[in-house]
Specification:
The structure is a single chain. By secondary structure, the protein is of the alpha/beta class. The protein is built from 20 helices and 13 strands. The protein has a four-stranded antiparallel sheet. Helix 6 (about 165-175) crosses helix 7 (about 200-215). It is globular and about 90 Å long. The two termini are about 35 Å apart. The mean pLDDT is about 95. The structure holds arginine. Arginine binds near residues 121, 158, 160, 345 and 347. Arginine binds near residues 118, 121, 123, 160 and 345.
């Protein structure tokens, strides 16, 4: 369906044109004075400059042509040249009925493109902590938004599975369990299929090893050597490394599942190591890279840069590949295997320079075609109430699992204190509400901003929170249920023209759905969906407080409201599904 605002603009643009003015001046906007009108057009002011006459004259000319237009219930020209408009309620209800009967609620599928989202980005063997939370939450939502619009999506977790952390673990294990066959270079048999550690051991081993390496130089050198040997292909180390990945990945999967985050591709940095040597040769042969202090670098600064952009280092003087090298090789691999038209990276904004260098290098070297869109969505830090990066009460790094658990517990208490529900249902509801609190708390902020993770605020059932949105959906579900029990089955019928201002305001909010879903994807800005559903929930709750739905005796009127509720529910549920959470039946 065409966007509601565009339909209004079209009428105005036609009127501008017929009156002898450029049609571009006819664009309508949502009124910023809802007390005066629902929509407005300020084009007469701009047109006045071009046509050198008073804006009110232009507004008056246009008004002559639109004042009898049946889609407007009110149209006025107001000094100095505003055109103020209200929408006819029959027209509005026709649009709502169109939405209600459309599978995509008035949203249109776009020309399908292949899009990759690089998000999550956890590092194998290090516990998943809240720092990884934002990437997972934002990336998942962007992916779902794009998919809803009809694109083909590949979410790639891009595991950090090739770095020093691997060498550290191998080094620590070699001290703890020196008798394992992995350390015996003369061993030629099959290595055990079971890992020689559990996930909890692994999560303890890494921080211990990392701590030791900072104090003990010999230890650190041994870990570095182990990393090198692993990368060079030492058989026992490779086998051990596979165990580390397997144990870690199955734990990651469990955690991401709890977050309703899933990846199509579980590729890692290690998967592209084989193509690095060839790529480096190409860089050398084409002359795009040059030597600088023994390292191989690519100049990426451009004349229009306002700050210094250092060269991208693709090989260190000791021959080692770097973070950027791996990202370039990954791009090569993605082009070859998926040929995407757009790749979106959802990573901490502190890595912005890295991605700028990588993108420029990739284009310069022709690793990616001109037409490929490369987007970097850099997010800010999740802080605690003290304004510092979020920590546990004891000051340690908060594990994702503990965070989820704590909030679930809080929700569980809240739910069971209100009324008596059976334990299993309360647990399930607590999980859903907790997830909405965390995700909405994150997504409702512009991604690039730091934000304060305020458990108390995020879990509140009132205000701009996930639980408030769920509460609204639950309220609608309960009215619909009651209707089914007391009046009858719900069948698809028509939404009637609004009978009061609250009902109309709700209808006008609903009409924005398609434009919100498109622009949130266009701008890679899920917070736009959050603010939309907050406004929509408010509009619904105002309407609800003014309207006695179940006790209404006029069945026709009542059935129209039931349809309006059904549509509101569908819009809200679609939006939260894109954000990555869902609503319980009761709360
Ligand atoms: N593993 C990285 C980190 O923890 C994030 C990976 C982001 N994605 C990428 N293609 N570099 O910082």
């Amino acid at each position: 369906m065409k966007k509601f605002l565009d339909l209004i603009s079209e009428e105005l643009m036609n009127a501008f044109e017929k009156s002898g003015y450029n049609r571009k001046y006819g664009k309508a906007t949502i009124s910023n004075r809802p007390d005066l009108c629902e929509f407005q057009c300020n084009g007469a002011m701009a047109a006045a400059k071009e046509y050198k006459c008073a804006p009110i004259k232009i507004a008056g000319d246009v008004l002559e042509l639109i004042k009898d237009n049946p889609i407007f219930s009110k149209a006025e020209a107001v000094n100095p040249g505003f055109i103020n408009i209200d929408i006819d309620k029959e027209y509005l209800s026709r649009y709502l009925n169109g939405m209600n009967k459309d599978e995509m609620l008035g949203c249109e599928k776009q020309k399908p493109r292949t899009i990759m989202v690089d998000y999550g980005g956890p590092n194998v063997a290090k516990p998943l902590h809240v720092g990884h939370l934002r990437s997972a939450i934002i990336g998942e939502s962007i992916k779902r938004n794009a998919r809803y619009l009809g694109h083909t999506l590949y979410g790639d977790i891009h595991l950090g599975d090739w770095g020093l952390q691997m060498g550290l673990i191998i080094q620590e294990l070699s001290l703890r369990k020196p008798d394992l066959p992995y350390f015996d270079e003369s061993f030629t048999g099959d290595y055990p299929t079971d890992a020689p550690f559990t996930i909890s051991e692994l999560e303890e081993i890494y921080p211990t090893a990392s701590g030791k390496s900072k104090e003990d130089e010999a230890y650190r050198n041994a870990a570095l050597a182990a990393t090198k040997e692993l990368q060079a292909g030492r058989r026992g180390y490779r086998a051990l490394w596979k165990h580390i990945i397997n144990v870690s990945v199955s734990d990651l999967k469990k955690n991401y599942e709890k977050l309703h985050v899933s990846f199509e591709l579980w590729n890692g940095e290690s998967d592209v190591q084989d193509i690095i040597p060839g790529m480096i040769d190409e860089f050398k042969a084409s002359g795009i890279a040059h030597e600088s202090d023994g390292a191989l670098v690519v100049d990426v600064k451009e004349d229009t840069d306002t700050k210094e952009i250092p060269p991208c280092i693709i090989q260190k003087s000791d021959g080692a590949a770097l973070y950027a090298t791996t990202d370039l090789a990954t791009l090569k691999d993605r082009m070859k295997n998926y040929n995407p038209e757009k790749i979106i990276y959802v990573v901490d904004k502190r890595q912005e320079l890295h991605f700028l260098q990588v993108f420029r290098t990739a284009r310069k070297a022709g690793i990616v075609p001109e037409a490929l869109e490369l987007n970097f969505v850099g997010f800010g830090t999740m802080n605690g109430k003290d304004g510092k990066p979020f920590k546990t009460r004891e000051g340690g790094v908060m594990r994702l699992e503990s965070l989820l658990g704590e909030i679930e517990e809080e929700m569980f208490k809240k739910i069971t204190s209100n009324h008596t529900v059976d334990e299993a249902e309360a647990r399930d509801t607590a999980r859903k509400v907790a997830l909405s609190a965390i995700k909405y708390g994150d997504l409702s902020n512009q991604a690039s901003k730091d934000y304060v993770f305020d458990v108390e605020r995020f879990t509140s059932f009132e205000g701009n929170t996930g639980p408030y949105i769920l509460y609204t959906i639950v309220r609608i579900k309960s009215i619909l249920n009651k209707y089914c029990q007391e009046v009858g089955e719900i069948s698809l019928s028509d939404i009637n023209p609004a009978s009061n201002e609250y009902e109309k305001a709700l209808g006008l909010e609903l009409c924005k759905f398609n434009s919100v879903i498109e622009s949130s994807f266009e701008e890679l800005a899920p917070h736009k969906i959050c603010s939309y559903i907050y406004d929509l929930s408010n509009a619904f709750n105002r309407f609800y407080h003014e309207t006695k739905i179940i006790s209404e005796e006029d069945r026709f009127k009542q059935a129209g409201w039931i349809m309006l509720l059904t549509l509101t529910k569908k819009v809200l549920e679609t939006c939260i599904d894109i954000l990555g959470f869902d609503a319980p039946d009761r709360m």
